[in-house]
Design goal:
Shape: globular
Radius of gyration: 15 Å
Largest sheet: none
Number of helices: 7
Helix content: 55-70%
């Protein structure tokens, strides 16, 4: 399995479109399409954006080894608020809308 196939698995797992992937990671739509269609592999900068935007384990993306999602160790864990924001950013737009409605009702 190659990087483009693993990226497709990420989009499927997160129920994301290429546009949503582009928006969350800050990678241009054109570059994202190139990565997904095996036109080219992501640069180091793009790999970091995928990691930061989606929490994807770079080792898994490059090699297929390990877990798809990066698991934070206890000493490297973010605050609950940062983790909450990161999870929200990775949601597809339709889920963001539902979540926001529910959150407003609860608050």
């Amino acid at each position: 399995m190659c990087i483009s196939e693993r990226l497709k698995l990420v989009l499927d797992a997160k129920n994301m479109t290429v546009t949503e992937f582009s928006n969350v990671t800050g990678i241009s739509y054109r570059s994202a399409m190139n990565y997904l269609n095996e036109g080219r592999d992501p640069s180091v900068d793009a790999l970091v954006k995928i990691y930061k935007g989606l929490g994807i384990n770079i080792t898994w993306l490059l090699t297929g080894s390990g877990s798809m999602h990066y698991v934070l160790s206890q000493e490297n864990s973010k605050s609950s608020e940062d983790e909450f924001i990161n999870i929200y950013k990775t949601m597809p737009q339709n889920l963001k809308s539902i979540f926001l409605t529910l959150f407003k009702e609860i608050a």
